C-alpha cells in the first residue's frame, strides 16, 4: 500500500510539474502574442505616419512672411504694379496691381507726403490714406515723398528727429526713388513711383527695423529695387558724387536728403505726416489722429481724396 501511495504521489507531482510547465508555456505564448500585436500596431502607425508625411510633403509649404506689418509677406513681385500680397492688417488695403488709364502725356496732379521714416504717424498716413489712394489714381498724379529734417546752414550736417538711423531710412527711400531704371541701364528714367512707394511703405511699416541690412534687402527684393545700387547711393560719403548738374548722374543719399529737407523747410512743413495736394495742405496725421483735413475733415477718407484728384485731373486735361 505504501508503494502504491508513493507511486501515486510521484505521479501527482509529475502531473503538477506538467501543469505548471503548460501554464508557463501558455503564459509565454500570451506575452509573445501581446508583444507581437504591439509590434505590428507600432509598425502600422509608423508606416501610416510615413505615408501621410510623404503625401503632405507634396503640398506647398507656406514660408513665414516678412511682414511690414504684414509687408513682408512673402510676396510676388510684379513688373508694373504694386505688391500682390497684403502688407498690413486693419484699415489699410493691400498693394495691388494698377492698370493705368491716363496717358503719359497728360497733365498730372501734384501729390506729396512729407514724412520722417521712423515716425508712426508716417506709417499710418501711408497705410490709411496715401497708398490706398495711389492704388486708384497713381497714373493721374505726380507723386513725391519728401522728408522733414534739420539742415545746417553752416555745415553739411543733417539732423533727424529720431536719430541717425532715421536719416539712413530717409536716404534709402530717396535713393530708391532716384535710381536709374531699369537697373544698370543707360536710361535717364528713375524708378517707377509704384515701386519706390512700395519700397518706402515696406520700410516704414516696420520702421523699428530700419536700417537692418536683411530687412532693407528683403524690402528691396520684394519691390524690384537693385539693393547694391541702393546701398552704394545711401552709403556714399561724398556729398554729390559725379553730379554735373544734369539728371543723368543720381545724387548721393545725403545730398538727396538735404535737398528734400530744405524743400520741406521752405514750404514751412514741420509735421510728419503732412499730405499736400495741388500745392495745398490736404491733411495732417499727428499724434495718431488726423488734423486740419480738407473738406471739413473728410479729407482723411481715401474716397474723398481720390474724388478730388479725379476732379482736378479732369480740369487739367
Automatic annotation (TrEMBL):
Pfam families: GILT. GO terms for molecular function: oxidoreductase activity, acting on a sulfur group of donors, disulfide as acceptor. Keywords: Glycoprotein, Membrane, Secreted, Signal, Transmembrane, Transmembrane helix. InterPro entries: Interferon-induced_GILT. One of its GO terms (cellular component) is extracellular region. It is found in: Secreted. The chain crosses the membrane at residues 38-59. Belongs to the GILT family. This is Gamma interferon inducible lysosomal thiol reductase. It comes from Aspergillus turcosus. The lineage of its organism: Eukaryota, Fungi, Dikarya, Ascomycota, Pezizomycotina.
Amino acid at each position: 500500500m505504501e508503494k502504491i501511495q508513493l507511486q501515486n504521489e510521484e505521479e501527482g507531482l509529475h502531473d503538477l510539474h506538467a501543469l505548471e510547465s503548460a501554464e508557463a508555456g501558455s503564459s509565454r505564448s500570451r506575452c509573445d502574442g501581446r508583444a507581437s500585436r504591439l509590434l505590428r500596431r507600432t509598425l502600422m502607425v509608423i508606416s501610416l505616419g510615413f505615408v501621410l508625411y510623404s503625401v503632405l510633403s507634396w503640398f506647398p509649404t507656406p514660408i513665414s512672411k516678412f511682414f511690414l506689418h504684414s509687408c513682408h509677406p512673402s510676396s510676388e513681385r510684379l513688373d508694373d504694379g504694386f505688391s500682390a500680397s497684403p502688407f498690413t492688417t486693419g484699415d489699410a488695403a493691400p498693394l495691388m496691381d494698377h492698370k493705368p488709364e491716363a496717358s503719359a502725356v497728360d497733365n498730372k496732379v501734384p501729390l506729396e507726403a512729407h514724412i520722417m521714416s521712423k515716425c508712426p504717424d508716417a506709417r499710418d498716413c501711408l497705410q490709411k490714406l496715401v497708398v490706398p489712394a495711389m492704388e486708384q489714381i497713381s497714373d493721374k498724379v505726380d507723386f513725391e515723398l519728401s522728408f522733414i529734417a534739420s539742415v545746417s546752414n553752416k555745415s553739411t550736417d543733417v539732423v533727424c528727429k529720431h536719430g541717425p538711423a532715421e536719416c539712413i531710412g530717409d536716404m534709402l527711400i530717396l535713393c530708391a526713388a532716384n535710381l536709374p531704371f531699369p537697373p544698370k541701364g543707360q536710361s535717364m528714367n528713375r524708378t517707377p513711383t509704384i515701386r519706390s512707394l512700395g519700397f518706402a511703405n515696406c520700410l516704414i511699416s516696420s520702421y523699428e527695423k530700419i536700417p537692418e541690412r536683411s530687412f532693407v534687402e528683403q524690402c528691396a527684393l520684394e519691390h524690384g529695387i537693385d539693393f547694391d545700387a541702393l546701398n552704394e547711393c545711401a552709403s556714399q560719403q561724398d556729398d554729390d558724387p559725379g553730379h554735373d548738374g544734369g539728371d543723368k548722374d543720381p545724387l548721393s543719399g545725403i545730398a538727396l536728403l538735404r535737398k528734400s529737407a530744405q524743400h520741406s523747410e521752405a514750404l514751412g512743413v514741420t509735421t510728419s505726416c503732412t499730405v499736400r495736394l495741388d500745392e495745398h495742405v490736404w491733411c495732417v496725421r499727428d499724434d495718431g489722429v488726423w488734423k486740419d483735413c480738407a473738406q471739413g475733415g473728410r479729407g482723411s477718407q481715401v474716397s474723398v481724396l481720390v474724388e478730388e484728384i479725379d476732379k482736378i485731373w479732369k480740369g487739367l486735361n
